[in-house]
Amino acid sequence: MFCSNCGKEISDNAYVCPGCGVKVRRNDPGEGPLGCWLGGVCFLWPIIGLILYLSWKEDKPLKAKSAGKAALWGFVIGVIFAIIYYGVIIASIASYGL
Ligand SMILES: [Zn+2]
């Protein structure tokens, strides 16, 4: 295989390129965007998405990115729903006249 950074030929099991020191990117079959169900998990529980993002960001940047994105969306939408939920509760308490 060849280094994607400098083009030097390197060993198939090399972890970093001996020519330029850049980490070798392998075509890892496990690497790729998240599957549907895992994206859903990250969306529903952003904390899980955050943990996956942190544990994958070195080895599986694509997966980490999609986990982080799903977690971020889940977090933002969760906050919006929480604001609406508490807004409705506060509004109904207020309308009952304390
Ligand atoms: Zn290189």
Which characteristics define this entry?
single chain; 98 residues; mainly alpha; 56% helix; binds zinc ion
What is the first-to-last residue Cα distance? 73 Å
Bin the strand percentage: under 5%
Shape descriptor reads rod-shaped
Helix-strand pattern:
HHH
How large is the radius of gyration?
A: 22 Å
Number of strands: 0
Stretches with pLDDT under 50, minimum 5 residues: none
What kind of oligomer do you see? single chain
Cofactors and ligands present? Answer: zinc ion
Helix content: 55-70%
- Mean pLDDT across the residues is 86
Largest sheet at a glance? none
How many DSSP helices? 3
Can you put this structure into words, describing what you see?
56% of the residues lie in helices and 0% in strands. It has 98 residues and is an all-alpha fold. The protein is rod-shaped, with a radius of gyration of 22 Å. Residues 3, 5-6, 8, 17, 19-20, 22 line the site of zinc ion.
